[in-house]
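User: Round two. Same drill as before: sequence, then structure, for each protein.

Assistant: Same drill it is. First protein:
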Amino acid sequence: MSSDPSLHGSNASAGSKPKQRRISRACDYCHRRSIRCRPADDGAGCQNCRDFAQTCTYHRTPRRRGVPARGSGGGGGASRGSELPDVKLSRSPSQGDLHIIPEVQQSLAGSDASPGLPPAWRAPYIVSQATVVDLVDLYFEIVYPIFPFFHQPSFTRKISRAEYNSNKPLFATTMAVCALVSGRVRDGSVMNPRWDVQALLRETLPDTFYAEAKRQLLDDGCDSSDFNILRGHAIMAITAIQNGKIREMHHHIGIYHMLMDMDGLHDEANWPSGIGIIEREERRRMFWSIYTLDIFTSVVWGGVIRSREQQSNVTYPAEVDDQYISDGGIALPGFSPSGLSPPIARLVLTAQSDCWISGWNFITDLYRVLEHALARFRDRRRSFMSEIIDDQSTVTETSIRNKVLQMYLNLPECFKTTPAMAFNQKQDLFGFQAANITASLQLLRIVLFAAGGASIKERCQIASDVVDAFNSIPVQYCLAISKPLLHHLGGIGSILGSVFEERLSEAEYTQVRSVMLAMARLLENLETIHRSSCASENLRSQVSRIDEYMSTQRQHQRPPLEETPVNATAQPMLPPVDGARGAPPPPYEQHVNSEMAADWSFQVPP
């Protein structure tokens, strides 16, 4: 049975798309990237160029097919191998063979490169360009509000043009960003419904990204002063915290501080003279981001403080949205970059409600106070220095708390309340700042109370306040901030853990029990970050064992009525287990669980 060709053609044109013809010659962009050139649906240009906002051109000189004629000179006599570099292979610790994209010259006929020069560097293929673009978009959604290392318009432009494929420091930084964001994806930080989390989990390779970024950063050695090398190590330190690799966090942050010290970059006067406004603002954001991270790690892991704000001469970032910043200037009406004062001269806190960076700078203020609180109150040991340098300051931890509280009360309302996440970047930037201000303020309170030798009652009260503060933060922000927030809770556990070394009264036991249950409820909301479902269950199990212990001791160790002193007014202490009246009770953890005191530290699992 035959069909009418004309009728078949009319049906095809009416009911189906015309058959796409195979492209016989790749455009310049696809040729340079060594990717398949796909025609656009409407037949006008290449789909890849359209996806990545490139101009679709065919300027390069096409190669002649077939075996070149014998005796032909010039470019025609060149072998095919000399026209197109071979694709080399490299090995990655976390992945198999990785193809290096070959460098293809724009015009072979006009090439006069010297054979003695090293070949241009090309990035190994780790993942598709589309996946890199997605991860960078996610960075600006869930990481950038806390660590704004990049100027968003310029960095996304570089990523969309795949400039990291030919720039080694930029490639290392890009891989570090991918490692950090993919780790957050793995740990459940992505709450925006527009993202297909399962697809992201299939396409992202956290360990591969981390290994490749580390390899590229270490290949550059410690002599490079490239800004992207500094930024890469800074991002890798945060990624190591996300992955539970605290030693590697110290490794990367140590290299960062070494490179900063080598060039004296703690002083803006030593910064390269040719940098533009965008890089200057990025450097300021990076400097104060790692300063706060340095203070945070010193509090959580007990390390030394490498950065001192009084020894730094770096201005706060401009309180202007990225869209108004360019190398030509800051376009916001009424803003004068020369009017910015260095942090040392920032005497009055004037947080503005029209830019989220204002709240971000306030967080830096809190960490500067925290640095001095640590220096003044941590381990106040008497030494010969006390006799040489007599500190006549009358500042107390109570006065510091009152001043910090007043600073907080003076903030605009948008930085004191955390609304539900709207999944709108501009709105959520303010929500992230409010959540981070709450967490940072409570961390400062914890340090001040612990350094002041607080009683069990005071420690329980501050822990209860901190838990209530964290419970007031919508869970989406807690999950997005991820592992660093759990380390805040780890600090709370460390403070409370010491109560098991002391004798507890009934009233004190009741307070500790209440705080334990509150922390269990909080951890239930954050167990996605733990990648473990047993943290809150362990807490509740410990509470049950304490209850059983208390009930048993009340029944068997209650003294007779005639032996009770008439003038006894103190709270009854926990009775001894062996029943010997008047004997001091042994350490509490021996009767409940020998591992309980260690469990209070709430160390984040790797």
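Second protein:
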Amino acid sequence: MDSQCNREYPCNHCTRRRRPEECVFSSEPTRNPSHNALHPEKSLNETKGQIQGPVPARLPIETPALDGPNEHWSSQHSALAKSFGYFEDKFPGGTKTALRDSSPASTWETIHYEFSRMPERRILDFLVQYFVCELNWMKQIVHAPRFLTHYHEWWENSKPSLVADVEFATLILRVCSYATQFLPSPLHAIDQICGHPLSDIRNTCSSIGDNLVKLCETLDWKGSLFRVQHLIFAALQISCEGRTDQFWEGIASASRAAQKAGIHTDTTLFEESLVPQNDTSKELDKEARRRTFCSLYVLDSHLSRQLDRVPFLPDHLIAGSLPRMHFVSETGSTSTEIPAGAPDIFTERLMQVQLGHFWRQFGSRHNCDYDPTAGEQRYDKFYAEYLPSLHPAFAFDRTDTTWDNALTKLPMQRQLLHIAIFDSVCWNFRPVLLLKPDYVARLPPYKRVLLQSQKRRLGLVALKELEAVTSLHLMFGGSSTRFAAIIFNTFEAAVLLLCLCTHVDFPFDQADENMDALGIHAKLTYKKAIQASEQAISRLQMLAELSDMAASGAQVAAQLFAKIAKWKQSSSPVPLADYIDTSFWQLPYSANIGVYDDLGPFPSLEQAYPGFMSEIFSSAAQKP
């Protein structure tokens, strides 16, 4: 007779079948809290003095022996590597780092104490399950089935004594803290889990995670895949909190850790695995490393392009780190039969890798003058080389939606990729908005015509980007979210459209044929641009309830909108109500819209206020 389900996530049955991602058991997140669900928030310094020997904990840790035969060599090897910068993967065959640490017992007692502070398992199970089913599709830092296998084994291990145990505990905490950023949600509408406020759970996980990170670095200077992953999740949480500068620093730390641990090389042994290693397990671990590295490469490429910085990861590393296995679904899809030819769950990330690799070849444009001809050549190359390489399920023209019902996250991945593509094209043409009139006047006539064409293409692509963001937001339920892709791209695309509205020579409402951008034919009118911008500002104002990034973006965009409204009202015979929904002025932040009322009427924002664009973006950058 089969044993009963152990009512944990993932359960014993699904784990034994090697299908942990298909587990549907869900703990009851709304039950009353138990006394020890969350331990009191005492600082480590306050409690340390009360420790007399090992502290009783939920997971007893075996303090490693200090007199093994290889400990002396391991200590010398570590000191040599730190002093001279030698990495194990520099030498053929490498050398093995002892994972059983020879640190003093006090270090392990401290780890013991931090483990005892972790939220109880039913809270962590709920957050891990929510992450795997609802969030992992976005960045895919971890391979869900492998992550759940390690998660199950971590709880089963009664005497964890490897550095990997500490690293993986940190990863669990970072994943759970990140998951709380997306709650409440339509699937979980309350701000509690098991009676505990989400904010308390988030703070507890973050606090313990911060402490364990320092201990991990003390135990093992080299690091592992788990370290790379928990550093990325820490950076993603910072992104959700709207601190892009610190997000950049977080990606820098993860990139250094990835190269230090050598996760981009097949020669690196994945010795930190928590499960028994056979040939299949080793190949799965190698695949997990490749996918994590690709996801990190995407984040590095995207953020460096947005900030006009040099990427941390060199291009040549990605060639040998591309995935080699095909997994149709890793999110527990209930469909038993996936149609033939369905895209891998990682296909969208691969398309993002190619997108980042394409734009990297042109380097950073920081402090470089914009050349309309070069901008057009980049666009033509992108249109001819990148767009045809898209998988049919992600194509712009005649998108294949065959697998949408079976792969429930595929439509959301499609919108996420399209947003990234639109954003990259906007990045290519964005400098046309910053050109000085005297510079434009010196250009040959054919380049001035080209600039007008590029402005129209920029406007159309920004409009399509807002449409894609709207679609993605609706797939999230249209509710409040901290997802940076929705907030950031809403703000940037709206500002681009509004800035185009300030250009008195922009060819709005012309009766000629539709404009072509990325194979999309449409006509951009002033009314479409202003209405799309208004809707974007309304979305930012709604999201401002949870996000500081959305709040600062909404305020700056609303100020810009007010400038345009005042200018249009004073210089156009068309009634303002034809363009603007008057209910907009009753939305939050409307009190801030009148800050420029003393400027008076002016024929063109572009000419009357030369520092207009710089002030708008610097104002956004200075917001918290």
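Residues 347-622 form one domain.

User: Perfect.
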